[in-house]
Design the sequence.
């Protein structure tokens, strides 16, 4: 089984985090110098990059990414992206998929934390293909002085968009909240996706201790720290905003090979199987959980038979030990039952509260275990923020 320490060789640790700029999380492009062949908003799509060999527009070859015209004036192309979820950034994936003879030779990335999300000039709605920024838009964006923003990634060369070279990973060490980034390409060209991996950061001082909050949501700082299997979908998808768009927008494991040849159930109707799969999360803020929602939306023939949720309170040092030694060792954490085993249903939201929950004190981490395998689209943990141990920092 895969764990935090045993993901694909060559992949950086920050891929475990949430994509704070994804359009499904509310990310949007608020300025771009040029969008002749393909609009910059494509950078933020959640879907895998698509290539259509025979697709053309009136402006040229159709591409699933951001592609500018061949520059014939001084300067370089750049855009400004407003993160859907402000937070601390740990790394970038600059994906050049299918841009092989037209990818941008190099890039750099800057960032800022702005007090307002209002752009001086509203960006026109609709397809931006074949357009460039107007003089008025340039004058408006100049007020942001984005060229002076903090540099997170200095000028770096990119590799072409072939399968073995398309992912250009850049690790970041910048422990400050970011709301906007400036993405520079030098001098022009195409890039398929920009994925901004990090942890959401909410100002909890503005949240009443009596208010019920989804403490696990990516918007509130929830983050996946480890898992046993993510063959078809990463468990971080479960803490995304809204309901899942499809099965690909949830956590789905491979079918376990240790299932009995003939399945049997106990008197509660739960299958008796030897194996299970799990995912561990840190809450955005420690709190006492009072309502749990488990949503198997879209998982009709592949939902788990049952699930349980355990919880604990960890210091930052204890969390770091678990990340180093692995969550699956069984000895690193003393898990306590929050939600005892429950039979799940297909394509349905199920809620658990009151006597169904066995913990009332504040916790900082939870582990969802499904048996034997399958998919869950969303997991919500509603509760009131309360102090537990010192909230772990993002030493991942």
Sequence:
């Amino acid at each position: 089984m895969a764990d935090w320490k045993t993901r694909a060789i060559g992949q950086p640790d920050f891929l475990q985090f949430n994509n704070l700029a994804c359009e499904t999380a509310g990310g949007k492009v608020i300025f771009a110098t040029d969008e002749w062949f393909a609009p910059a908003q494509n950078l933020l799509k959640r879907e895998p990059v698509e290539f259509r060999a025979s697709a053309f527009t009136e402006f040229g070859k159709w591409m699933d990414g951001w592609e500018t015209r061949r520059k014939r004036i001084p300067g370089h192309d750049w855009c400004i992206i407003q993160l859907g979820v402000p937070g601390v950034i740990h790394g970038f994936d600059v994906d050049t998929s299918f841009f092989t003879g037209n990818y941008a030779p190099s890039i750099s990335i800057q960032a800022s934390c702005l007090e307002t999300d209002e752009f001086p000039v509203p960006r026109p709605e609709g397809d931006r293909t074949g357009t460039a920024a107007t003089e008025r838009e340039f004058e408006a964006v100049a007020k942001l002085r984005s060229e002076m923003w903090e540099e997170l990634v200095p000028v770096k060369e990119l590799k072409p968009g072939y399968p073995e070279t398309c992912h250009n990973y850049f690790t970041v060490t910048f422990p400050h909240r970011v709301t906007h980034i400036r993405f520079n390409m030098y001098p022009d060209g195409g890039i398929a996706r920009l994925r901004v991996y990090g942890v959401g950061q909410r100002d909890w001082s503005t949240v009443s201790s009596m208010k019920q909050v989804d403490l696990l949501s990516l918007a509130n700082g929830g983050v996946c720290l480890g898992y046993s299997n993510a063959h078809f979908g990463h468990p971080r998808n479960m803490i995304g905003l809204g309901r899942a768009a499809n099965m690909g927008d949830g956590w789905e494991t491979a079918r376990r090979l240790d299932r009995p040849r003939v399945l049997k159930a106990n008197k509660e109707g739960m299958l008796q199987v030897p194996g299970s799969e799990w995912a561990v999360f840190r809450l955005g803020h420690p709190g006492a959980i009072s309502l749990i929602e488990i949503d198997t939306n879209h998982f009709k023939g592949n939902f788990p038979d049952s699930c349980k949720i355990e919880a604990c309170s960890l210091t930052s040092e204890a969390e770091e030990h678990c990340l180093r030694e692995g969550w699956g060792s069984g000895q690193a954490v003393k898990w306590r039952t929050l939600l005892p085993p429950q039979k799940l249903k297909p394509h349905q939201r199920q809620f658990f509260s009151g006597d169904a929950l066995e913990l009332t004190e504040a916790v900082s981490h939870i582990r969802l275990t499904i048996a034997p395998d399958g998919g869950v689209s969303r997991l919500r943990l509603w509760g009131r923020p309360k102090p537990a141990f010192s909230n772990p920092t993002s030493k991942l």
